[in-house]
Amino acid sequence: MRGATAAHPTGYERLRNPRLNKGTAFTEAERRAYGLEGLLPPAVTKIELQVARRHAEIANLDNDLLKYLVLTDLQARNETLFYAVLMSDPATYLPLVYTPTVGEACQKFAHIYREARGMYLPLTARGRLRELLGHWPEKDVRFIVVTDGERILGLGDLGAGGMGIPIGKLALYTACAGVPPQYCLPVVLDVGTNNTVLLEDPFYLGLRQNRVRGAEYTEFVDEFVAAVQALYPKCCIQWEDFANLNAVPILARYRDKVCTYNDDIQGTAGVALAGILAASRITGTKLTDQRLLFLGGGSAGTGIAELISLAMAREGLDIAEARQRNALFDINGLLVSSRTDLADFQKPFAQDRPPIGTFVEAVKALRPTAIIGVSAVPKLFTHEIIEAMAAINERPIIFPYSNPTSRSECSAEEAYRWSEGRAIFASGSPFLPVEIAGKHFVPGQGNNVYIFPAMGMAIFATEATRVTEDMFITAAQAVAEQVTEADLATGLIYPPQSRILEASLHVAERVAIEIFDSGLARVTRPDDVGALIRAKAYKPVYPE
């Protein structure tokens, strides 16, 4: 019998190592070799049967949070089987491990916490972040998804409970695009919380103090980035669910210095651009013909507007004119040049026109071809607004992108019914198909899952040194070109999630080519970039 070593643990130690554990799939020979005889039921089962068992268990649960917990427990116990389950039916499982279910999991994080996962870097560890990061067992980290928990989805400040987001995002890196999980690290920067409910909750697991701001916050983030660069020089940092006042400056501070991007700003922009490109095929128009009006003027809205403007400029439109085709509306009305409350990142999109105080008035005045909701406030796309869009456009484009489902600006049924079935619809979280007047509509889900996992796979395969806006435009084009005419006929403007891996590998290949063309790769360019991507992709099979 082989002796136990760190690389080859035996007995319960092996069963409790999620990367090595096969559960009932250990063969009789392996059970003898690893001292597992008697520790498992005698039947040896294939992974396919294990997946079927998990399908049956989860299908019998009537609560999505319970399903989330079963899956996260499986991830902690048997990583290969966890990804085999997710990848066997992504359309069913992605909404359970990420939006919308992850929102509830973050809200209840302290009450459902089970075991350690990821890294928690508290403000109290200032000056020691490199030491703390060094406690992570993997020494070649390629991706960190990091949040400070201040703006989790549309749910607000959840403090340390925001860890559910990095964990979920990185699971999708693997399940949707094949990024090997051992290279992924979820991180929370705990700088306090202003959520009084959490601060008064005896179960809360984060620092019990209000959030720090200003120089103290910036220095803490600087120390984190420096620690990552020192320990993991090939690592890409993805910023996730930071409030606008920090998200925009952080991206501006680091984007030209390290390999980094903000998914809320750039990933959301990429998936929105993909949706507009696909919708343009339905309307028979060009991207440069579109006029967009955003409900929400923060980092997500301006990020989408800027990427679409850059894509319009690539098609021949002057960049200033392109930005004027992307108007934004926030709590104080339309962003116009006479307003004195605009942040620098909003000013390029200010309209040179009189103020407009209501969104429906903005729709009637600007006559947009598309409205995009990134407000995190539900039901703001009212009957009157959808009707106004339908009066202006034969096929109005309606994108309520706020997550989770409870924050969506309108439902799929509302958009289709109020537009008499003419809306081109996509939302941030999933909605069920809709039947109206005998016609079947399949709502698209404009989820960043079409962008960031593929971006991650391209960066992983090429060891890219930077992330650029052109990479997101390329990703958006690669998503949109995979939507078939049959998909468009049902109103679907994104590839079906049932084939998300195939779609993501295609996007990753296109982005990787962009990385090589831009001279940003650390590896030698192969003759077949697609083959490089496929060779690097993780497969949920047990190690021999």
Structure description:
This protein has 544 residues and is α/β, with parallel strands linked by helices. The chain folds into three domains: 1-45, Hemocyanin, N-terminal domain, CATH 1.20.1370; 101-258, Malic enzyme, N-terminal domain (Rossmann fold, 3-Layer(aba) Sandwich); 264-537, NAD(P)-binding Rossmann-like Domain (Rossmann fold, 3-Layer(aba) Sandwich). It is built from 24 helices and 14 strands. It has helices at residues 11-15, 28-33, 47-59, 64-77, 79-88, 90-97, 101-107, 109-112, 129-133, 164-177, 196-199, 214-231, 244-254, 263-283, 299-314, 319-324, 359-366, 383-392, 412-418, 452-462, 469-480, 485-489, 500-517, 529-536, and strands spanning 119-122, 143-147, 184-190, 236-239, 260-262, 292-295, 326-330, 333-334, 370-373, 397-400, 424-427, 434-436, 439-441, 444-445. The chain has a seven-stranded mixed sheet, with helices on both faces. β10, α19 (412-418) and β11 form a beta-alpha-beta unit. The two termini are 17 Å apart. 51% of the residues are buried.
